[in-house]
Design a protein that fits this description.
The structure holds two protein chains of two kinds.
Chain A lengths: L3 H18 L7 E7 L5 H15 L4 E7 L4 H13 L4 E5 L3 H13 L4 E4 L10 E4 L2 H17 L2 H4 L4 E7 L5 H14 L4 E8 L4 H14 L5 E4 L2 H13 L7 E6 L5 H6 L5 E4 L4 H12 L7 E3 L3 E4 L8 E2 L2
Parallel strand pairs in A: 1-2, 1-3, 3-4, 4-5, 5-11, 6-7, 6-8, 8-9, 9-10
Antiparallel strand pairs in A: 10-12, 12-13
Helix pairs in contact in A: 2-11, 3-4, 5-7, 8-9
Chain B lengths: L2 H9 L1 H18 L9 H26 L7 H18 L4 H24 L5 H20 L7 E3 L5 E3 L4 H6 L2 E2 L4 E2 H19 L1 H11 L1 H6 L4 H27 L10 H11 L11 H20 L4 H23 L1
Antiparallel strand pairs in B: 1-2, 3-4
Helix pairs in contact in B: 2-13, 2-14, 3-8, 3-9, 3-11, 3-12, 3-13, 4-5, 4-6, 4-11, 5-6, 5-11, 8-9, 9-11, 12-13, 13-14
The chains are: A alpha/beta, B mainly alpha.
């Protein structure tokens, strides 16, 4: 029995450098990607970004799993990846606390883990990649204030009137996009005259905007926490023939969604919330080739307006 | 009028449903958001918002009267929304052909549920629950998990853009001097069709008989299986119509569209006074139920009631409306 221990240690010593030098299975690195919910277009985009970035590297193979917005399902999918002994794990967790143990288990087993978008607790992971919703919300607020201050009715000493269509307010992105925006508005001649929780849903946003229009004869700007909600609000205003009087601002800036709305002139601006998919694959390659990587990476994001969308947007200041 | 007939009239389900509606409208008059509730635009918007739910409610009513339930309608909305968007936007198909495909698909799903329930004796709850999951998967497969919009993405990440076909604008449009949404007319059309089926066709009586006492109906020669097939088939058809209306109003096909709409459709039918045990009720009750739910949401929305209070108030007011109906019945 005790003869087996040094043998195992020796084996381990042999395997560890080997793992850094080459794939564990066959001639391809296997990356397990655990996505928490493919019901959201933004997360579909994240997977698409990962797939596209990985396709550029023939030595990579990515296996995707979708937890369908179920924490426990995601937990078991991560455990399946550990059992399959993947070369690297990418996790975009649904929630921090319940998904910390499986992520830590993978990390302790020597599987590098990249955590995307939402955090896990502690530091038993290789790298966290995420964007800063508060910063994006604040940038949207600063942009909105600049636009509103140039309106004739505000220049004449009036106050601008904003409708805010929030995301699900029990979610952190919703809370942060609100907090950042409100921080930028402080001390400015602007009022939020109507606010409603759209739960990220476009039909809900349209209904709430119809109410906002019914109650308020003048609305200068609509700030929506995601582009679908901004689009729904635009459609409501268009039906009321008031879309020309209102500036619409959204968040997410997905290529097939927000950027298109900006191109079509429906939204005045959309602020990108980057998926980090491409960055995750780049980091994965560095880790697999034995480089060390920083623990945390905050993604910079772009914003898109009619003027810059053709050229791929502009980075936030 | 004799006292007896007054009492009977007061106890009639339609009067009770009207009472629930009046209760919600009264709340709206009291909390009118600086007069917004008294403007026609608010009512027109409410009628537009409730139309998709109402269309689903029509199919749900037929199924409920036959003694069943159809949980698949929300998923069929999603499936038909992406199908319609794909056929018109991506395939460039003409509107009538696309409509035929989509309505055919919805009806087929409904008939499949109906066959499971009628021929294979699977419980309606189970059969349509399975269909709900299946149709949602189909919607995601058809769309590749993405919303189908005017921007068509190519494998290399670039986009081409297509114009919105006229059928989208025509459906998301207002008529009568901007005073009525077209989707509301579609809803009323579905109500009318359901009324004809229930009140004018022999099959309407078969539906009531099947839902009332299936065994007795079978023994007295009612084609129970065919009646059920009709109910689920029409429910699928209406869900497809709702999906088309949803896509037209969103200007895209969203594979997640319509999730949990089946619950609202059931709520509409039940608040109107249709009984879940089947055999009783009518489409007029569903119309009143749709208005009740529509006004409830609208009143809470124009008053900008916060989300947590809104959910609690919705629950409380639904219970109050149902209890109000019951007291008058006794």
């Amino acid at each position: 029995m005790h003869k087996a221990i040094p043998a195992a240690l020796l084996l381990g010593a042999l395997i560890l450098p080997a793992a850094a030098a080459g794939p564990k299975h066959g001639d391809k690195w296997i990356i397990g990607m655990s996505q928490c919910n493919l019901g959201e277009p933004w997360r579909v985009q994240m997977n698409a970004d990962i797939r596209r970035a990985a396709e550029a590297h023939p030595g990579l193979e990515v296996v995707f799993k979708d937890a369908q917005n179920d924490t426990l399902r995601q937990r078991s999918q991560i455990e399946e990846f550990i059992d399959a002994d993947v070369d690297l794990l990418v996790v975009s967790p649904k929630e921090a606390a319940p998904l910390t143990p499986p992520v830590a288990a993978a990390y302790r087993r020597g599987i590098p883990v990249i955590v995307l978008d939402r955090k896990v607790l502690g530091d038993e992971f290789t790298q966290f990649i995420g964007a800063d919703n508060q910063r994006i919300g604040r940038a949207a607020g600063e942009w909105a204030v600049r636009r509103l201050l140039s309106l004739p009715q505000v220049r004449a000493g009036g106050r601008a009137r904003i409708v805010e269509l929030t995301g699900l307010m029990t979610s952190t992105p919703g809370q942060d996009r609100l907090a950042g925006f409100h921080a930028a508005l402080r001390g400015q001649p602007v009022d939020i005259i109507f606010s409603a929780d759209t739960q990220w849903l476009e039909p809900r946003a349209r209904e709430e905007m119809e109410s906002a229009l019914a109650v308020n004869p003048r609305i200068d700007l609509v700030y929506a926490h995601n582009d679908p909600a901004a689009h729904g609000a635009y459609l409501a205003a268009k039906a009321a023939e008031r879309e020309k009087d209102i500036i619409f601002v959204g968040i997410d800036g997905l290529p097939q969604e927000g950027q298109v709305y900006v191109r079509q002139g429906l939204l005045a601006a959309s602020f990108e919330y980057p998926t980090g998919g491409r960055e995750a694959v780049e980091t994965a390659l560095r880790i697999l080739h034995g480089e060390s990587v920083p623990k945390r990476v905050t993604l910079n994001s772009r914003f898109f307006t009619m003027e810059n969308v053709g050229g791929g947007g502009e980075w936030l200041p | 009028m004799k006292a007896g007939s007054v009492r009977r009239w007061l106890a009639a389900p339609s009067f009770r449903a009207l009472l629930a509606l009046a209760f919600v409208v009264a709340i709206g008059c009291a909390f009118n958001a600086d007069g917004a509730f008294f403007r026609w635009g608010t009512h027109r918007d409410m009628l537009r918002q409730v139309s998709v739910y109402g269309i689903l409610g029509c199919g749900m009513t037929l199924v409920i009267i036959s003694g069943g339930i159809d949980l698949s309608v929300g998923s069929v909305v999603g499936l038909c929304a992406v199908l319609f968007a794909r056929q018109t936007l991506h395939e460039g198909q003409a509107a009538p052909a696309a409509l035929a495909v989509v309505l055919g698909a919805g009806t087929a799903i409904g008939l499949l549920s109906g066959a499971l329930v009628a021929r294979f004796r699977v419980q309606a709850f189970v059969a349509t629950l399975a269909m709900m999951v299946f149709a949602r998967g189909l919607a995601k497969w058809v769309s590749g998990g993405q919303k189908i919009s005017q921007a068509i993405q190519h494998p290399d990440g670039t986009f081409t853009y297509v114009d919105l076909p006229a059928v989208f604008q025509r459906l998301d449009h207002r008529i009568l001097g901007g005073n009525l949404s077209v989707v509301t007319l579609v809803f009323l059309g579905c109500v009318l069709l359901s009324w004809v089926v229930l009140e004018k066709l022999r099959y309407g009586r078969y539906l009531y008989a099947t839902g009332g006492n299936e065994e007795a109906a079978r023994l007295s020669g009612v084609p129970v299986a065919r009646a059920k097939l009709l109910a689920y088939g029409l429910s699928g058809l209406f869900a497809a119509v709702a999906g088309v209306c949803q896509a037209a109003q969103e200007q895209q096909g969203d594979p997640e569209a319509g999730s949990t709409y089946e619950l609202t459709a059931i709520a509409i039918a039940v608040i109107g006074g249709n009984t879940l045990s089947g055999g009783r009720g009518g489409i007029g009750l569903t119309l009143l139920g749709a208005l009740t739910i529509g006004y409830l949401e609208k009143v809470l929305s124009i008053n900008a009631v916060g989300e947590s209070s809104r959910l609690m108030l919705t629950g409380a007011i639904i219970i109050a409306a149902v209890l109000l109906q019951r007291r008058k019945a006794g």
